[in-house]
Amino acid sequence: MGKSSKDKRDLYYRKAKEEGWRARSAFKLLQLNEQFDLFNDVKRVVDLCAAPGSWSQVLSKEIFKDKNNSDAKIVAVDLQPMSPIDNVIELQADITHPKTLEMIMHHFDGEKADFVCSDGAPDVTGLHDLDEYIQAQLILSALQLATCILKTGGKFVAKIFRGRDIDLLYSQLGYLFDKVICAKPRSSRASSLEAFIVCIGYRPRNGWIPSLNSNLSTEEFFQDLKIGRNSLNNELNLEFNDEERIVAPFIACGDLNSIDSDATY
Amino acid sequence: MDNMKLDQIKHIGPICALKVISNNLLLSGEGPTLSLYDYIKGEKIFERLVFKRNKIHGIEIINSSNDIEDDIKIVIWGGRSLSIFTLNNFKDLNYEIPHYGVSDWIFHCLFENESTLHVLNSHNIVHTVSLLNDNCKLINTKHCGWKSILYSGTISINKETGKITVLAGTVMNGILIWDFETCQVKHNLTEHEGSIFKVVASPDNKYIISCSDDRSIKVWDMETGELLANGWGHGSRIWGLNVYNISNDGFNIFSCSEDCTARVWRFNFHDNYNNGELIQERIILVHTGRHVWSLDLNDEKKLGFTAGADGKIFVSDLNESQRDGYWGHKWELNDISNEINCVFQKGELIKNYSDFGYGLIAVTSEGKIMILKDYKKWKLLFIDDKFAKFCILKIFENEPIVIIAGKMGDCILMKFNENCEIEIKHEFNLNDSFNRLGNILINGYDDNYFALFESPNPNDPLIYKKIDPINLSILESYELLKPKDKITISSLEYNKVSNMLFVGCRFATMLVYKIENENEKNQPLVVYKNLFKGDTVSSIKSLYDNSNNTMLYITNKDGTYHIMKINENSTYEYLQSSKIQKGFLEGHIKTPNGDILLYGFKSDCFFVWNETKQYEVYREICGGPHRRWNFKYWFDSNNRLRYRFVYTRSSEVQIVQQGEPYAFELLSDGLHGREIRDICVINSQNNNDEKIIITGAEDTTLKISTLKNDGTFNSHWTYREHIGGLQSIHAINDEYILSSSAKEELYLWKITECDNKKCMSLESSLPPSEENPDLRVMDFDSIEVYDKINGKKIGFLIVTVYSNSMIKVIYYDIASKKFKVLIDDNYMQCCIFHVRFVCIDKRLFVLIASTNGHLSIYDINNVIGKYFSIDDSNIKEVKLSLNDNKFEEINESTKLDKLIINQQIHQSSVKALDILQETNGCIKVITGGDDNSIIVSKITKDEGLKFDIESFLPSAASSTITTVTVIDEKTVLVGAVDQSIKLWNIENGLTLVDNKYTTVADTGCSEIASFKNGEKYLLIGGAGFSIWKITN
Ligand SMILES: C[S@@+](CC[C@H](N)C(=O)[O-])C[C@H]1O[C@@H](n2cnc3c(N)ncnc32)[C@H](O)[C@@H]1O
């Protein structure tokens, strides 16, 4: 996928060191926030695929800036272990496992979340279609959780790689949110295919009550939710080309004068 | 409206599935196309598009009616698609291939029997499908209660009991083994780290074999789940493996990896399972770039098949020692001593070998001369003190004539017959010429045989002697004077065209002699010094073709090789120069089909490398630096390379002679091993029916190929000059191209043709601006510069742009091969993606496009006008000429003049750009961006320049547009990472003309090849390469 990110000396990397972020990714979330005012009114958050934790750091700083914030909560999940961050509940687990989602729900104890984000990226194999598929699965797992935990009007942000089937995902998200935008922060390299979907205004599907069942895979979970996904049938005659595809509007975010991540010095 | 159309005619790209279906047939998944190969004959028999979009990721078969090949039932899958048909159906073009699908990515399919198929998906769920009456029907779905995402999985059936087991590799260290019947998890094996990329069961279902992110292969007991052994060795992640050769003793594993190699491992049942270690038996390096994803085995014939990102399919012989004609043996010195009935002294070693075609002659450090008859039985020939301690032993390539010589110049020539007996012997010494002998080189051509004797004394001449091959008498003898500097000779060749003798030496030096008058002292005609940066010229071979040129193939110890052309006036040029990735070169071989093989050493191995097709032909571990070796090769009646290699390793003499190969080595040639980043098309200088194509990739190589007007594509040479991944390649004209990459490399290449191949050689390179170059040279453009008086081409004006916003305008002088920087400046602080010179009304501008979404134009006439004048008013081609002598005066660079246009058009990076010069003098700029949009803008002459956006289409693709290529005055091609390639009419707004899906993922570059006869081809590069025909 795109070019290998070899250059550790870039300015965002140094800036992250200076400002105390664990990864340069922090700036991606900060620039997304600049554009979409994501943190406004946000108190309860799930940060998926969070290691080493710079998004959680950003969120923790934002949400707990005023001390008495009793109903605020941040749950961060990753396959990798993460060193502790103030006010963040950390779980080491696979987000594609239905049990992990149950575990997260458990921490919220029936309460809704305002914001679900995922900066997940799989182990890239170089098989572009497989890599894109697994990436899409990480997003679907995050979305699955979002449909169960997000309050109406809540926000969802996830990392995407804009490969050949990204328009399918845009179209499916369109059924669940008021606005679906493809955003590219300037801190994300132009030479990589990375971008973020920013979904604003969660709208639960009429008549569909999402319920986590650890016996259902992500794919099965979405099967009777009519969002244009193909579902398994007895004749195995899936007509993939009939699946809806749309292109989400693109917005570049971060000030034009901010550092260009492609320029190396 | 036009009906321009695109049709794909060729695709080279990643191969994600291989399946052996018989003792001569192999199926290969090449994108959505399934190909059938005969690996005995080395032919592709048939190919057919079987999927619409998805790549084939797996193939399984069932063959119940054993003998009838056509009845073999095949299932192929890829992504969520699957299809089932017989081999007969596949070959019958009237048969419509059915297309089925499940709702999740498929990792494996297994035929339980002719009418039942199990399908494992990426969430660890198995669907069972009934295939009765040629209908597919889902009959059952099972799981083990653990439905997280997998990275691999296999359904395995125990052939004896019929019991089915599912082996699933998760992303979090674990392998889940579950029983299909009961859905019970039997084991959760967690000793790997990271994602599990492959897990299979041994054919007898007693063992589990797995590999992962952690670069290890693990063997587990199926029954107990106990970890039995680890295999370490692969340098990167391991993608695939399989088990073969099961016996009472143990089994072998064949694995393939991200490190470009396939490896053979041994697992023995006794020895307490090798103390928990898998023994690595062999490394096979036959792929380039990065990934070898697919493998399969023919267990009966012991063949291994591999394929991956480079599009190559390779067949490895896993049982070489069982092939007809194979001979491998090793002797301890004791064995030899017993055989020849003669005691070796303490410390006595074999110092030299020579293979004369019927046997081998060897000499020890105590002057024992021995024969290895038929390569099997040692015999003592004689013992002579004269050859003790120091001895030279050489053999002519095509005649069983051996020369042996001692330190004091005593020489014996011997000719052997087929029984390894001396037929004729001729002794002489060199006392007349010198009293110490340092080295002898020998060579021959037609019926001429000659030797060159060198003394260690720098004042002694070289002695050239011509030898009669019949009676071994010396026919002629000459003295060749050495140049003043100390030289050490290393290689020798005679060239018939020029009638010259070439002597290669250490320190990249070559001497040339013309031998004319006997007994006279011959001075070297020429002494070439510093031929290249490295060390010794290790071999020289004449290259004869239809031309009357003096051309030589030279290989060098440092791993470089060249085709050197010697001109009439003794100057030389390289027509071809390149280097191997790693190692020292000893020589080169040209095969009857024209492939060039190179051989030499790397670390502890001797290797033979096919440079044309880029794979290792042979590798033998033969130990450290003080090597004693002899490599003898020939071609059999099928024109296949055969060889014998003899060497000493830890005082043992070892011989390996390769047997008759069972299968064909290379079934598909492939192209680059990683994503192609740019394509350049130029005209062939003497053939209108072909174009020269240069491709450059992330794998840091450039390749030169040809495309014929009937669509045939052939790759000729590979270049490893760049250290960074390629960025851009553009032609200056039909003779020169430039290539750029990360690490601030900008290389100028000259294109020529020789030895029936297109070739190129590095002409010059732009010195980087930093000591530790880290910038990417993103793009560049060029204009030819002519001499004002005689109109001859004398240089190029070049503009380069960099990842740190730097812009340089440079003049290149052809005669001195030097660059001179005229302008050195910065745009802003963002990365510049594209640059073009544009000429409007005889004024020259630089147009750039950057990550900030802007198109910007600089006026450079003030600076350029000082040195050049724009002569030709032909707008399509700018003609610059150099004002007299001004070039000499340029001492330092200046800054750019004013930025006259700087307009944001795209939201973020301008990823693709092409320009169209219209006949009315204005210029159209077509750009595509990260923001999915296409914009057509127009630049016209005004007081300054006027810039307008003509048309804008925001969602022209569903993802980043990465390439735009102008096809003709009204049509452009636009390619995007969503794998769409679209033709747009840009006359009035943007109108879609054709829209196709390409199998090339990470679609990143395109070029057009227009032939004189009207044929037009479109070339698309990315993770693969495809050729499309454009028709009206
Ligand atoms: C780009 S990093 C996230 C960086 C993070 N947002 C930060 O700011 O520090 C991507 C992460 O995705 C995680 N990941 C990938 N697949 C996952 C899965 N199935 N479950 C949980 N985490 C996963 C990886 O372990 C990795 O840490």
Question: What this model shows, in words?
Answer:
The complex is a heterodimer of chains A (265) and B (1032). In chain A, helix 4 (98-108) runs parallel beside helix 5 (128-149). Chain A has an eight-stranded mixed sheet with strand order 3-2-1-4-5-7-6-8, with helices on both faces. Chain A has helices spanning 11-19, 26-36, 54-63, 98-108, 128-149, 166-174, 218-221; strands at 44-48, 73-78, 88-92, 113-118, 150-161, 177-185, 194-202, 250-253. Mean pLDDT of chain A is 88; it is low at 1-8. Chain A has seven helices and eight strands, in the order H-H-E-H-E-E-H-E-H-E-H-E-E-H-E. With 265 residues, chain A is of the alpha/beta class. In chain B, the strands form 21 sheets. Chain B has a six-stranded mixed sheet. In chain B, strands 38-39-40-41-45 form a five-stranded mixed sheet, with no helix packed on it. Chain B contains five helices and 86 strands. The mean pLDDT of chain B is 93. Chain B has five domains: 12-322, YVTN repeat-like/Quinoprotein amine dehydrogenase (Methylamine Dehydrogenase, Chain H); 331-480, Beta Barrel (Lipocalin); 485-579; 589-658, no CATH class; 910-1032, Methylamine Dehydrogenase, Chain H. The longest helix of chain B is centred in the N-terminal third of the chain and has 8 residues, at 333-340. The relative contact order of chain B is 0.07. Chain B is flat, with a radius of gyration of 33 Å. Chain B is mainly β. The termini of chain B are close together. The interface between A and B is large, with 71 and 87 residues. Residues 22-23, 25-26, 49-55, 77-80, 94-96, 119-122, 138 of chain A line the site of S-adenosylmethionine.
